[in-house]
Design brief:
about 525 residues; seven-stranded mixed sheet; about 25% helix; alpha+beta
Length: about 525
């Protein structure tokens, strides 16, 4: 263990980072000053404007900050001040005036002010937007104009009232503020050179191995209790479990019910909360694909016994999802069921249509919403389709490649999940109403569905708004646009000398975690 710490800590450095090089001297620190976090999937990048995956969000939330943030101990729904100390809203709900925090600096020394916020929002405006800014439209396109009133006052005028707008300003995608100096230096792309105002700053990224963060000792708020975070990429669940057992890491994610007893037997502890997520299967609705036909999508859905699948795969650590929106969220309807298991009808349909083969594309590693991994889930679906006379070919890629291949390759069925990042139903379901294949992967489209989603975002919170989301889900299910599978309980395993707030496990704030010296 000591040898491992020594070798890894050689990468924990005070640095100047260029495109591919790191030069600095090692920092020597006691073990309790270093938190080792092992994850199943490497982030796509560390730029909140250019990412939409939760592995990236896990780092974004520690390096960057937004005008607002979600309160600790809430399920990402109640906001509080962050880079904005206070705000006012006009009577018509169109003008938000933010009073910004003074004396804050980005990690590169650039002062934070209203110009920096405007620079970030303008960067993602429709005329400046680039392809990978998949959250920009959702979070920022409701803005008519952003004005700098003075150095620490920002005025945002909306095109129309937006019920979740303050929630948007607390999100970990599109809303976080990056250093304008760094954005200019790195050609508008901070995927490998992140510079924010958060409690941790970026040190180094060894692709496929680890990412190193160190505490921002000039942070405006409460300083993080742990000096360094070594974020290790370990794709195999068994490898992460062994690393935790051997004391090589302090925290692991991407675990499932099959390894719980093993972890507990070796002295590890499990932290579990109800998941803010949905694991689902989706269909390619593009023209020319057999799954363009709603009848085909219906027959595929009918072939799968989803409750049985969930019970078999997740061993009680995920709940069957009859509906898409989680049961605790406004907009949930207990009477809505996405599909009914009917293998007889399914088999008859496929035989009559002469459909004997389909192609599924999926990811390999475990995800927080699918702890057994995409391949295992696809193989379970494969077995059900086999019973109704359909052969399912499965193509498996690593996470980053899978996301890219969804845009370019041929497939009928795909697998993904959604993790809530602002506690509002709009965040969960509105991506099915856009034409962006980065978020609406199967390009599902229904004009009535789109109208309901557009109306709901401007409707005040309450029963009328909830009914709009319920009606939208009903249409989505009648179209068999997706097949909801499960709501995963979010779990991490950690050593006994680690404690803290792990409420949003797919977006862990390392500044909320404490580590004491091991007694061993």
């Amino acid at each position: 263990m000591k040898a491992l710490l020594k070798s890894l800590l050689a990468a924990v450095v005070a640095v100047s980072v260029t495109a591919g090089a790191v030069s600095a001297a090692p920092i020597s620190r006691a073990p309790q000053d270093n938190l080792f976090f092992a994850t199943s999937t490497e982030p796509l990048g560390i730029d909140p404007a250019l990412t939409d995956d939760m592995d990236s969000a896990n780092l974004n939330i520690n390096i960057y900050e937004s005008l607002l943030r979600f309160k600790k101990g809430t399920a990402a729904a109640e906001v509080e001040p962050a880079l904005a100390e206070s705000w006012t809203i006009s009577d018509d709900g169109l003008v938000y005036t933010f009073n910004l925090r003074k004396g804050v600096k980005f990690h590169d020394g650039t002062p934070f002010n209203a110009d920096a916020v405007k620079f970030n929002f303008d960067r993602q405006s429709p005329e400046n937007r680039v392809e990978k800014m998949s959250y920009a439209a959702h979070v920022l396109d409701g803005i008519a104009k952003t004005e700098v009133v003075d150095e620490y006052t920002l005025r945002i005028t909306l095109k129309k009232p937006l019920t979740p707008f303050l929630n948007f300003m607390a999100m970990t995608f599109a809303a976080p503020i990056a250093s304008p100096t760094a954005l200019k230096k790195y050609n508008n792309n901070l995927m490998q050179n992140p510079v924010g105002t958060g409690p941790y700053r970026f040190v180094a990224w060894d692709r496929g191995q680890q990412i190193v963060l160190t505490r921002n000792d000039e942070y405006w708020g409460e300083k993080a209790p742990v000096q360094n975070v070594i974020y290790r990429i370990m794709k195999e669940t068994s490898a992460r479990v062994v690393a935790l057992k051997n004391g090589e890491v302090d925290i692991i994610n991407g675990i499932d019910g099959h390894v719980i007893d093993e972890i507990k037997a070796s002295g590890g502890e499990i932290f579990t909360v109800e998941g803010n997520n949905t694991n689902y299967m989706f269909y390619n609705c593009r023209k020319g694909y057999v799954t363009e036909d709603v009848a085909v999508r219906k027959a595929i859905s009918q072939a799968i016994n989803v409750p049985e699948l969930v019970e078999t795969l997740y061993k009680g650590y995920a709940d069957y999802a009859p509906s898409y929106i989680p049961s605790w969220m406004s907009g949930f309807d207990k009477n809505l069921v996405s599909s009914t298991y009917d293998p007889v009808a399914s088999k008859k349909f496929f035989k009559e249509k002469g459909i004997t083969k389909l192609t599924a594309m999926t990811y390999a590693s475990a995800r927080f919403y699918n702890t057994v991994g995409g391949q295992v889930l696809a193989e379970a679906v494969q077995s059900y389709l086999d019973k109704v006379g359909v052969k399912l070919d499965i193509v498996v890629y690593d996470w980053a490649t899978y996301r890219a291949k969804l845009l370019t390759d041929n497939w009928d069925i795909g697998f993904l999940g959604w993790g809530g990042v602002n506690g509002d139903a709009d965040d969960f379901i509105s991506h099915f109403s856009n034409d962006d294949p980065v978020t609406n992967h199967g390009l599902y489209k229904n004009e009535k569905f789109n109208e309901l989603i557009a109306k709901a975002i401007t409707t005040p919170n309450g029963e009328a708004r909830n009914k709009l989301y319920q009606q939208a889900q009903k249409i989505l299910f009648e179209d068999y646009g997706i097949l909801p599978i499960s709501h995963s309980k979010e779990m991490i395993a950690h050593s006994k000398n680690v404690s803290g707030n792990f409420l949003l496990l797919h977006m862990t704030r390392f500044s909320d975690i404490n580590k004491t010296a091991s007694k061993e």
